[in-house]
Amino acid sequence: MVLESPECSEERKWLVRRLIELRLRLQEVKEQEKDCPSPNYNEVRVVLGHHFIIQSQPAPTTKYHCDRCCGVIWSVVHSWYQCVDCKYSCHVKCLAQVCRLCAHVKASENPTYIIDICPELGLSAQAYRCAECKAHITFKNSWIEPRLCDYDGRYYCPTCHWNSTAVIPSRVVHNWDFDERRVCRASKQLLRLMEKRPVLNLQQLNPRLFGFVEELSVVKKIREDILIMKKYFVSCKSAIESRLLWQLQERQHFVENVDSFSLQDLIDVHSGELLQYLEKVQAVFIKHIKEDCRLCYGRGFVCELCDDDEVIFPFDSATAICQKCCAVFHRNCWTKKNHHCPRCIRIQKRASLRRDSTSNEENFSS
């Protein structure tokens, strides 16, 4: 079927994905057969990227609704399907009518947000039909009224748009607006899956935001200091054994770069939780370098521009770093000397002496 399908078509893409899933499923079955000769498997139904598993256990304390027909799912009475990736739920009878692409597939193939604020085109661009199920919608019929999704700017019918609310990434990036607005079910599931992925580069999208939001600029400065401290920890045996960097395992991108943020990071910055969290982590890191570890403390600097013997570090607030040789000085001393680095001067002198000696040797040999 893959070979017979048109090249670079949607049909071939889905067939290849299904083939990979079947091969992975076969490998899992073979591995489980070695451990348990007679296993009890739940059959996985794959529909538009969803991995549906039958839910046979009743859950009387939880109320579910079918994402396809909006009806209540009585888990005590009958079985129902739920996608293990995006939590799409539906009746058994509604499985064949599923028309929504799995949000996990969208988040995996194109992990980006719509950055334009509510890019609405109008009902005429949709031929007066729902953007998902293609049902005819109009303002004249109150039973099938169009509902606007504030995230993607398209109109949906009440079956596909339940007036759920969510924080809109584009409004946060451009306006620092965290008010929840109405979105369709597909956008709600996508935003839920994407909220912890660090895909927002604020330096590219809106660099002025750091000047308007003081907490955000402080968080960026702490992240820059953490990246500097990381250079101490990767070569410190004590830090590796105590797994200091694992304190940021929930936000691993903080030890990889400075510019990327997740939507959850920005929400936590707005609430003040992220700043408190980073300040605690920073205090632990500084304590290790300056007090607990003699090896890390020995990698500090002494300002060559003054007579002070105090050991300083590049992540200290009152220090300046030479961009050429990475030497560290007191900021006041660096300003008084007009950013003239004595270490760079020595390096240039040694380089010139080597060039002169090399030229003398060539002249002597000739």
TrEMBL record:
GO terms for molecular function: zinc ion binding. The keyword Cell wall biogenesis/degradation does not apply. InterPro entries: C1-like_sf (IPR046349), DEF8 (IPR051366), DEF8_C1 (IPR047983), PKC_DAG/PE (IPR002219), RH_dom (IPR025258). Pfam families: RH_dom. The keyword Oxidoreductase does not apply. It comes from the Eukaryota. Belongs to the DEF8 family. This is Differentially expressed in FDCP 8-like protein.
